[in-house]
Amino acid sequence: MKVVVNWIEEGVLEVYEVDEGLFEGWLGELDPQRGEEWEELARLVRERGMLLYSVRPDYTITVGPD
User: Which residues does residue 6 pair with via DSSP β-bridges, in sequence order?
Assistant: First the structure.
């Protein structure tokens, strides 16, 4: 599965290929609710995933539900 990590402080978007079962296991184990937990999940993806693409955009727009 592909996972995108937005490292805001580093100003970089990274796309990783991660084993789906492994990723779902991390989600279940960490059950991220706070920033620190999401950051830990992002570090696991960075450490154990395969980096497919990285970009330092000049401007980022994040769209979510109202």
Answer: 13
Output DSSP code: residue 11: T
Between CA 20 and CA 54 the distance in angstroms is 20
What residue spans define the domains of the chain?
Answer: 2-55
Size of the chain in residues: 66
Q: How many CB atoms lie within 10 A of CB 5?
A: 20
pTM for the model stands at 0.84
10-40 residue pLDDT tens: 899 999 999 999 999 999 999 889 888 999 9
Tell me how far apart the alpha carbons of residues 39 and 46 are, in angstroms, rounded to a whole number.
10
Radius of gyration, CA atoms only, the chain: 12
